[in-house]
RNA sequence: GGGAGAGUGGCGGAACCGGCAGACGCAACGGACUUAAAAUCCGUUGAUCUUACAUGAUCGUGGGGGUUCAAGUCCCCCCUCUCCCA
């Protein structure tokens, strides 16, 4: 239909090629034992209803990278799916009275089409939608396996609850200083609830080992930070009433400096030890503290507060009697919920002690000593030595830590301990649109897991999903009431559903064999070939959520014998965020949202792809520029015309031009290859642009020569990852066989890359005075000789003798006088 | 307060290992084509000064110091922005 003289019309060629690719199964990924595999994965989208430019920005370069690997000879798997459970579906249902299932599946259908317009190499036969029973059956199965191994447990504990989403949240989903909900930004409240947890803390130590993965330093440090390992000791402090309080400290070397002790207001011992005359103030403080976490935590009043319980503890190392306080700066969730306070060497203890006139006792001092009274806590560890610390006085802090710890162990009053900030993953959600937790409660048998053969526990489609703070399933009689699989008696189902992060913790395995019917969640043969994921791309905002969860899942799956490696994704790369043209975050309310569909309509998919790769440093992102995309469109138009429109009057090909073109071609292959390897998509496109500029320049002379044809073909191959539709059309019009995407990535010849002649700069004292064109292999003496005969250099030197001459081959000659 | 990242023309961004700062593109300006406009093509475009001229000079990668024949790049100090943790 298109003839050589037609203009570039993306709307004509793009859908045709996409159809052809589909018909010929070009992007079907099947096991090819003789070929090296490459599993490229991009984070699966939530089916919100419309594909966002952010999705394109994340996926297009990932697709180009996958295509590049494919052309380099790898058998590439690049699957896609939908993370389909979650709150927006339920909220839409409540607001507009559409069933979450319908809302979700309609969106999936729409987004599937939008994704297809991207022209990516997604293998659609491996698509997964996580809200389908064939998928969530396996989430439930994994839950049961975790339960069997003690990795899933239920516990009554204070948890974060979002009053807007009407559900509990995992610690990772609570963000910022004001502790707001990651989804809706509502400050969370504390509730005491019986909830399911995954024991991610069992893997805390292993999760700190990043030695097997190539992940951005940023993500690694965020995870390290999040897991928050601290080493120290636990120490038992006897109380007057015969009980003991255990504290965790990272500074056992300061034990002789303890002047008081602080319990978290919720600490179970508080009620037991509070004396009659302090009861009132302690109760009042506890109430206030609980309210404080229940109400929005206002701009954090830096002032520490607390009250005395009336009781005393004994410092086990020196027998000193120390008062026991409660204060809200001690958290029940960290360590043991109790601290020994050493005001001389801890900032928070210091300000607390000052406020309540508690003694401050120096036990660590630098060589030059400390001026007392202290004006601030002395917290340095490096050069401090223990003082006033009985037998340990004189030891450097670092050494003291170890010595004191072993002393505590010998005396039976403490032990070496490691504390992690990481807490177990709270996975229960009081919402309808999620995976039901496959647990049954029987009056006689207690907590009974649903037998494997009864999976999936289906989510009923006729529940009343009004958010009440309780799971809607609780009010669905047919779901709730069941029989105990053990004794056959009446029983009730667990009505909470799972955090949707569970769906995405193992989805990379589900792609191998979607909705697998076998005895395990995925086909072991597929797994043996494709796993683990070689390259994962997505946003950095998942650093402490999804990306920790999926590592945890993989380690747990390994221990279940389902996979045989330690890390799910070997390489991770994060893209940045595309902002609105006003440099603000895109949002409907700001009206600065860029719709990819409109761009595809206006310019075609390839232009959008090229612009998204060219416009920004991928890992940084930045504001959208609606004029900038014109440049990418012009580029593709120019490419079209250069390669397909014949010249009107042909010039004479010269050897020199031919060599120039050939050299540039090989330089371009080299740069494009290196840039794609390095995820430098912007310079990859720039290289192609530069080459097309040269093609345009030499076209009149070289058109239809062998060298030209070679250049045109190779250029088309280099363009294929970025603009797959256009490349396919050019390939066909150049008379080559379908498909360009099955071709081998071009190789450069290092000898042809090098220039024959180079221009070097002649400097005097570092200032450029002249330039010289010399053969690339010219020897130093010759260059010097030539340089000194230049009149510019002669006059600039003015007869002065050079003190030193520096020659950098191929670059410059610097004459120092 | 601690950690991570960033700061280069009017804008997005290039610059391998310390060696011509500003590739590539956007915008702008001038020209060609056109009855005209759009599109396209060709040229100019870091700043300041200088020249009769396509000349020449000085400054210039957030700021200040340093190392070096030579610094966007290495070292020290400081400032600003973004993210994470407290």
Compact overview of the structure:
36% of the residues lie in helices and 20% in strands. The strands form eleven sheets. The chain has a four-stranded parallel β-sheet with strand order 2-1-26-27, covered by helices on one side. A four-stranded antiparallel β-sheet has the order 6-5-9-19. The termini are far apart.
Topology:
Blueprint: H1 10-23, E1 37-42, H2 53-71, E2 75-77, E3 81-82, H3 87-96, H4 100-116, E4 128-129, H5 133-148, E5 152-162, E6 167-169, E7 174-175, E8 180-181, E9 189-198, H6 204-207, H7 217-227, E10 229-238, E11 244-249, E12 260-263, H8 269-273, H9 276-294, E13 306-314, E14 321-327, E15 338-341, H10 347-355, E16 364-365, E17 385-386, H11 397-411, E18 414-420, E19 425-426, E20 428-429, E21 439-442, E22 446-449, H12 477-480, E23 481-483, E24 490-493, E25 497-498, H13 507-510, H14 524-530, E26 533-539, H15 546-559, E27 569-575, E28 577-579, H16 596-603, H17 605-614, E29 621-623, H18 628-644, H19 655-677, H20 681-702, H21 706-719, H22 724-733, H23 750-753, E30 757-764, E31 767-775, H24 780-789, H25 791-797, E32 804-808, E33 812-816
Parallel strand pairs: 1-2, 1-26, 3-4, 12-14, 26-27, 28-29, 30-33
Antiparallel strand pairs: 5-6, 5-9, 7-8, 9-19, 10-11, 10-18, 12-15, 13-14, 16-17, 20-25, 21-22, 21-24, 23-24, 30-31, 32-33
Helix pairs in contact: 1-22, 3-4, 16-17, 17-18, 18-20, 19-20, 19-21, 20-21, 21-22
This protein binds one RNA strand of 86 nucleotides through residues 177, 216-218, 221-222, 224-226, 228, 347, 421, 540-541, 543-544, 614-617, 619-620, 622-623, 625, 627-632, 634-635, 637, 641, 674, 682-683, 685-690, 693, 759-761, 763, 765-766, 768, 771, 803-806, 808, 811-812, 814-816.
